[in-house]
Write a structure and sequence with these properties.
Radius of gyration: 19 Å
CATH architecture of the largest domain: Alpha-Beta Barrel
Number of strands: 15
Bound molecules: pyridoxal-5'-phosphate
Family: Belongs to the class-IV pyridoxal-phosphate-dependent aminotransferase family.
Enzyme class: transferase
Keywords: Amino-acid biosynthesis, Branched-chain amino acid biosynthesis
Helix content: 25-40%
InterPro entries: Aminotrans_IV (IPR001544), Aminotransferase-like (IPR036038), BCAT-like_C (IPR043132), BCAT-like_N (IPR043131), Class-IV_PLP-Dep_Aminotrnsfr (IPR050571)
CATH class of the largest domain: Alpha Beta
Oligomer: single chain
Pfam families: Aminotran_4
Distance between the termini: 23 Å
């Protein structure tokens, strides 16, 4: 395997950044994960736009021209012969003597790009059965709209899920409303068939997959509301699912101890997952 580190393609086993990289010491950096499907990167412009926004919000400079970064992503996918899988991009504020204050202008951001195969397509096997999720109190900072590498709360929530035999943790806020998953956006379909997801402006990451699914929902004429929903409402839902570039549309069949519907993936989630396959024909670049 090959990784890209600060201007060079190196064997994955030797890929390293300096011990005083601010990503390592302060989690002072941002990242993106894009799906790779049939050798192409799905919705790369959407991911690069969000990377640009994350960098701006943290006043980290662009490490290279946007077109150069796009080239590197494609090149890492190509060199690793990833047909279906993911490509990971990380940009940190760079290497500098440990000090909380931003370093001087001479310090350049560090860039790492890796790719790996998943076969055949993001979570296809799991999607046939659906996954279970646990609910977990929201304990992250308020700027979850920035895709930072500071993921310790997400790590702890997802590990708690794993220890309870689940794949994902759904955070709930102080009003008992679901915000999102540890690494996914959360959706439900109510008993009357309305699809509900939390507005992107409040307490969630604006998922790229979420945006594509919203387009599909509109195109299909599925009844839809963008509003907060509570843990109780989710447990009474007809079906539920999560979205992320790494899992696409993944049906949820159990929340804590509550089995949803008949315990099998719901028809809306299954349909949207199928549609996503067609939609990505347009999004792959
Ligand atoms: N929410 C969180 C906290 C995430 O970490 C992710 C993806 O990593 C998502 C939502 C889904 O975003 P996307 O669809 O862009 O992968």
């Amino acid at each position: 395997r090959i990784a890209y580190v600060n201007g060079q393609y190196v064997p994955h086993k030797d890929a390293a950044v300096h011990v005083e990289d601010r990503g390592y010491q302060f989690a002072d950096g941002v990242y993106e994960v894009c799906e790779v499907w049939r050798n192409t990167i799905v919705d790369m412009p959407g991911h690069i736009d969000r990377l640009d926004r994350s960098l701006k919000e943290l006043s980290i400079g662009w490490p290279m021209a946007r077109s150069a970064l796009e080239f590197v992503l494609r090149e890492v996918v190509r060199r690793n012969r990833v047909h279906d899988g993911i490509v990971y991009i990380q940009v940190t504020r760079g290497v500098s003597r440990r000090d909380h204050f931003f370093p001087g202008e001479d310090v350049v951001p560090s860039v790492v790009v890796t790719a790996r195969a998943t076969s055949p397509r993001a979570g296809d096997a799991a999607a046939e059965k659906g996954i279970s999720v646990i609910t977990y109190p929201e304990n992250r900072w308020p700027r979850v709209d920035i895709k930072t590498v500071a993921l310790l709360p997400n790590v702890l929530a997802k590990q708690a899920a794993k220890e309870q035999g689940s794949k994902e943790a759904w955070y709930f806020d102080c009003e008992n409303n679901v915000t999102e998953g540890g690494s996914t956006n959360a959706w439900i379909v109510t008993k009357d068939g309305t699809l509900v997801t939390r507005p992107a402006e409040s307490g969630i990451l604006r998922g790229i997959t979420r945006a594509v699914v919203l387009e599909l929902v509109e195109r299909e004429g599925i009844s839809f509301e963008e509003r907060p929903f509570s843990v109780e409402e989710a447990k009474e839902a007809r079906e539920a699912f999560v979205t992320a570039a790494s899992t696409l549309v993944m049906p949820v069949v159990k929340i804590d101890d509550t089995i949803l519907g008949n315990g099998h993936p719901g028809s809306v989630a299954t349909r949207l997952r199928e549609l996503f396959h067609t939609a990505t024909d347009f999004l792959a670049v």
